[in-house]
Amino acid sequence: MAANPSWWPDLLGALAANHAVLACGMHPRSRMLGPNLTRLPPAPSAMVALTFDDGPDPEVTPRVLDLLDAHGATASFFAIGHRAARHAALAREIVRRGHGLENHTYRHPLSFASWHPGAMLRELLAAQHAIADACGQAPQFFRPPAGLRSPLLDPVLAMVGLSLVSWTRRGYDTVSTRPADVLRRLTRGLAAGDLLLLHDGRSARAEDGTPTVLAVLPGLLARLQESGLRAVSLTQALQAASAVDAAAPAGGPASRAPVAYASR
Fold it and tell me: Where residue 6 falls among pLDDT bands split at 50, 70, 90?
């Protein structure tokens, strides 16, 4: 490069393009780096998936469970491994009530997407074992901290037997103290197949001190019912989609890629 200064513009352009592609691929809803569930596949009934991150939390999670029960809704909880181990009885209660308990790493390291594969593998396995020991069943799905994926993540997920999940839309309930704003983000354009993200752990607080998720959830569940939508866990949604595939003629209109990777 010192001997050929004329190469600099091309090399800098290539470096910028490389970083741009990598940044796009690491975006939570991107599929450039591999399969990524951002919405549900077609199912016999109008379903949406409710997902909750960063728990279980002994103050918030039981109240979330009661609200879900009151509306006949089920959900998937992406648990932090060490929190599931600490609150094992609560983890078991989540599963007992018919919800899914999934992998959200063991310690929720925000630098996870920059780790090498060996470190990622150890983190995922630690969470997998902690959650399975706590509730009696191993997670099937994984969501990375902040949703950021590494270019090196897919082989690690394959070794652990996990599928990557992000979301269709999120409410930003970890930072917003205005429940009406969170509800609006989640319901704007709400439709069957949407995958919604909330948090039962690390929720922000509304002005009256109520965790934002608890202030939002009753209105969200009511809106789903008014719209004829049923809130389900990821496992329930994909089982329903598999039933559609099984009933469809070979090569018919319902045939498609494996449901675990269907997305918009």
Answer: low
